Amino acid sequence: MPDHSYVTIRSRLSCRVGEILALVREKLQYSEEQPSRPGTLILVAVTSSGEKAVFRPSDEAVFTTLGVNTHLFACEAHELDTLLPLPEEIHWSPGDSKLHDMSAEEVANQLVTFDWELFSCVHELVLQRCSEVQHWVATEILQCQSLPKRVQLLRKFIKIGALCKQQQDLLSFLAVVLGLDNPAVSRLRLTWEGLPGKFKKQFQQFEGVADPSRNHKSYREVVASLRPPLIPFTPLLLKGCGPVIVQEERGSVHKVAEMVRSIRRYRSVQLALDVEPSPSHLQTKAYVRQLQVIDNQNLLFDMSCKLEPKDV
After folding, report:
1. Residues 6+ apart with CB under 8 A from 155
2. CA dist., res. 67 & res. 75, Å (int)
3. Which regions of the chain carry the CATH code 3.10.20.90?
4. Rounded CA gap, 17 and 57, in Å?
5. What value does the mean pLDDT take over residues 245-260?
C-alpha cells in the first residue's frame, strides 16, 4: 500500500490483475488497519529508482515481469503520485557483509543448489535470479568501505565464479562475471590493482567466456563440451524466442522446440552435490536465498565514486 504496509495473498503466477486486486480488496475489507472498504484500486509496479508502471485489469502473469527490487503497490488512482520505493532501497548503510565470514566453497554450493531448484521448476524465475546475482556482486563490493577487504571480496567472487563453473552452473558463473564487469565495479582502479596476478588472469579468461562476439561463440563452445546436469545461462537460452512465438511462424516453432529440447537435456540427470553440512550451512543457505541487493545503477555508481573518487 502507499504507506508501505502490505497484505499477503495467494494467487497463481498466471493470475490476471483484476483477480489480484479482488483478492487484495477482500483482504483489506477484514483488516483492522483498513476499517473502511477501499475505493477502486489499481495495481502499480514501482522500481527502486521510482519508475512506475500501471497494469491493466486484463494483464496476466505480472509477477514474472518484476525486477529484483520492483514491488507491487495497490492504491487508488489519486494516490499514484505518492508512491515511493521502499526506504531500504533508497538509503544504504556502509559496513561489513556477512559474506566475509562465509567460505567461497559454501556460497558457491548454495548458489548451485538454489539455481538447480529454480531451473527445475520455472525458467522465468531463473531469469530474475540472473539479474539478482549480478546486482548482489556489485552491491557487496560497493558497500565495503575498506580497500583491503574490498580486494578480498573481489578474490572471493572470482573464486565463487570458478567453483560455479566447475560445477557446471553457468547461470551463476556468468552472473558473477557480469556483476564484476558492472561499470560501477570495474572503475575501482585501486581495488583491481590490489588483486593478485593469477586472479586477474583467471578473470580475463572468464570474461572471454562471457564475450558476446560471434553470437556468443566462446560460451556455446563451453556448453557443447559439457554433459548433463548443467545449468545454462538462461537469458541466452531464451534469446530470440519471445516475439517470434507470437508470430507463430514455422521458424519460430523450431526455435521454441529446440529450446525445450535443450532444457530437457540439461536437466535429464539429477544434480547431486556431495557436500558435508557444516555448522554454518543453514546460515549460508538462508543468505543465498534472500540476497539483499541494490539494483539502481545510479546509486551503485554514486557509491563507487565515494569509495574511489574520479580523480584518484
Report:
1. 195, 196, 199
2. 20
3. 17-89
4. 5
5. 58
The count of residues in the chain is: 312
Instruction: For the full predicted model, state whether its pTM sits above 0.85.
Output: no
Q: What is the model's pLDDT at position 247?
A: 42
What the block records as the C-alpha cell of 163 is 567453483
Neighbours of 299 (CB within 10 A): 19
- What's the confidence (pLDDT) of residue 46? 94
Query: Can you name the CATH fold of 17-89?
Result: Ubiquitin-like (UB roll) (3.10.20)
Which DSSP category does 272 fall into? -
Tell me the CA distances in angstroms from 140 to 22, 50, 68, 154, 264, one per residue in order.
39, 22, 15, 10, 34
Q: Which helix (H) or strand (E) holds 21?
A: helix 17-29
Residue range(s) in the chain whose domain bears CATH number 1.10.840.10:
92-307
Number of helices (H) and strands (E) in the chain: give both, helices first: 15, 3
- Condensed to tens digits (0 to 9), the pLDDT of residues 162-194 reads 999 999 999 999 999 999 999 999 999 999 999
Domain 92-307: which CATH class? mainly alpha
C-alpha–C-alpha distance, residues 160 and 109, integer Å: 9
Q: Write out pLDDT tens, residues 274-286.
A: 877 888 888 999 9
